[in-house]
Amino acid sequence: MRKSNPLYPVAAAVAYTGAGIIGLVALYVAASVVLSAVPVAGEKATPAPSEAVEVYLLSNGVHTDLVLPVRNAQQDWTRFISYADTPANDTSQYFVGFGWGDRGFYLDTPTWAELELSTGLKAMFWLGTTAMHTTFHHQPEVGPKCVLLTLTPAEYARLVRFIETKFDLDASGRPQQIKGHSYGQNDAFYVANGTYNLFDTCNSWTNRGLKAAGQRAALWTPFDFGMFWHY
Q: Which UniProt keywords apply (predicted)?
């Protein structure tokens, strides 16, 4: 009688596990594409020219930021965060970008080449903490990865509130800077609320910000293209 291979059950288990993982990844990607394509139009109003607030949706190709004026009649962000928190302390930049995401990704993975498996797993499965990344800008240039949005004062107020509530404030109500970390001369990191995961990514957060401000958005998207499809 032919003897069975004692390694067969192990090999079969590995094969089934691998197939299951591939299937879940394929399902996630498919759901991302389908739900990204479903538009949420919001309740867009046309602001009076004297009241319009210019805001930008900006992507670096992977991660998106909401870019707001540093100061206007409604909000002075320098009362909340500071130019002095950045290495350059360049007060000539009149816009500031906000991006929320996994703290491990932000601080320990400045490039994709430096991504570690442990960092990725923590981020995907609710095991990490989060950070808010802020970047001061001169006026962004509209293009394939930068969209100009014109908000009413009411829409802008909702967007400001949406962003403010994601900062984890100290006992005195101030943002808590994560010192010693920046990508360049004009950015800083702060402790944030919430937990990053497969279904609540940096881009999902930006997409929710668009919804809060009554702008066009995807039903749900973990990727930047899910928002730009609608612009």
A: Membrane, Transmembrane, Transmembrane helix
